[in-house]
Design brief:
This protein is α/β, with parallel strands linked by helices. It has two domains: about 200 residues, Isopropylmalate Dehydrogenase, CATH 3.40.718.10; about 130 residues, 3-Layer(aba) Sandwich (Isopropylmalate Dehydrogenase). Helices cover about 40% and strands about 20% of the residues. It is built from twelve helices and twelve strands. A ten-stranded mixed beta sheet has the order 2-1-3-12-11-4-5-10-8-9, with helices on both faces. A hairpin with a 4-residue loop joins strand 6 and strand 7. Helix 1 packs parallel to helix 12, helix 8 runs parallel beside helix 9 and helix 10 runs antiparallel to helix 11. The chain is globular, with a radius of gyration of 20 Å. Bound molecules: nicotinamide-adenine-dinucleotide.
């Protein structure tokens, strides 16, 4: 197949990890006879420096003509003033909104070899392999808000429609069909009206179309505990924008390092935005210490979700597993005093395994 990909290196370690992910895509193209054409564009702090905007119109134009976006990371101390009118993360929110990417997929897998980097016991971690499906363009992060009077009070509004809940729940149920056929839907239906609508809508969709899936409803407070006490019991976790934000960060500790985690943001069609979960890590930028696994596994998600290339996606994931099994470690997963390979050496090892 032929596909066009917008690449957004962004800031900090962004360009370093992206380079390795592109090398992996190039290897997949040559091995499986595909053609991937890359179009690099600006986002985040480096875009602010060059154009005054975190998401230049030219970047959106480039992405509109492509089949998928591969984004590394944005931000850094230079632009970290929260009251500045132009900030790097506006690029992220803007691009998600522009393409109506309403479903955020974040897989979290525990690697036995990295178990000592997590605060959990080995026996709790074994077999953990879960997928968050987080609603990304609605809820309290986008609802009506106001600081009132002289700033002594303020409100934000959690607002969901049946359609918004249904379309993201569809993504979760379909994902579960290709996995272990279980969805845990997270809400706070005992307190919030918006979450009663959430539960009712998920229950109805399940009864209409997905009775083959085992559906459980969990209150968000219980879920925070179960993620630590029985993480293996989860398959697909469906959550609202805010609950998914918090729970997926909690679950990220199960993987051993933030550098390991990929994500995909999807809309109604096959177009998607793929990015590692981590930020721009300015503390290690330019030192060859960045772990490229999150970005490389985001490439695997792109191959699967936007291009329908399951075999190729699996080949990338297997290659990462093989390199880890060979003992190669980047600095973040090497352990204190242990030797480690550079970002580029790790990326090249993955390329070599494909
Ligand atoms: P961060 O994710 O950049 O870093 C947190 C810690 O994890 C740091 O110690 C870092 O060195 C380490 N780390 C992160 N990614 C790593 C990798 N691939 N390999 C090895 N170690 C890695 O979060 P932060 O320090 O809170 O934020 C730094 C900047 O990134 C801020 O400007 C923030 O706004 C931005 N940020 C961007 C995104 C994004 O682009 N999606 C997400 C989060 C934070």
């Amino acid at each position: 197949m032929k596909a066009k990909i917008t690449t957004l290196p962004g800031d900090g370690i962004g360009p370093e990890v992206l380079e390795q992910a592109i090398a992996v895509l190039a290897r997949v193209a040559s091995k499986y006879h595909h053609e991937f054409v890359f179009h690099e564009a600006l986002i985040g702090g480096s875009a602010i420096d060059k154009t005054g905007s975190a998401l230049p119109a030219e970047t959106l134009r480039t992405a509109e003509q492509c089949d998928a976006i591969l984004l590394a990371a944005v931000g850094g101390p230079k632009w970290d003033n929260p009251t500045a009118p132009v900030r790097p993360e506006q690029g992220l929110l803007g691009i998600r909104r522009h393409f109506e990417l309403f479903a955020n997929l974040r897989p979290v897998k525990a690697y036995q070899a990295l178990a000592h980097f997590t605060p959990l016991r080995d026996d709790l971690l074994a077999g953990v392999d879960l997928l968050f499906v987080r609603e990304l363009t609605g809820g309290i992060y986008f609802g009506p808000r106001q600081e009132q009077g002289d700033g002594d009070s303020a409100y934000d509004t959690e607002l969901y429609s049946v359609d918004e809940v249904r379309r993201v729940a569809e993504v979760a149920f379909r994902a579960a069909q290709g996995r272990r056929k279980k969805v845990s839907s997270i809400d706070k239906a005992n307190v919030l009206a918006s979450m009663r609508l959430w539960r009712r809508t998920v229950t109805q969709l399940h009864a209409e179309k997905y009775v083959d899936i085992d559906l459980e409803h969990l209150l968000v407070d219980s879920c925070t505990m179960y993620l630590m006490t029985r993480p293996r019991s989860f398959d697909v976790i469906l959550a609202s924008n805010m609950f998914g934000d918090i729970l997926s960060d909690e679950a990220s500790v199960l993987a051993g390092s933030l550098g390991m985690l990929p994500s995909a943001s999807l809309g109604a069609g096959t177009f998607g935005l793929y990015e590692p979960v981590h930020g721009s890590a300015p503390d290690i930028a330019g030192q060859g210490k960045a772990n490229p696994i999150g970005t490389i596994l985001s490439v695997a998600m792109m191959l699967r979700h936007s291009f329908g290339l399951e075999k190729e996606a699996q080949a990338v994931e297997d290659a990462v597993d093989m390199v880890l099994a060979s003992g190669a470690r980047t600095a973040d997963i090497a352990g204190q005093g242990s030797s480690y390979v550079s970002t580029e050496e790790f990326g090249q090892a993955v390329v070599g395994q494909i």
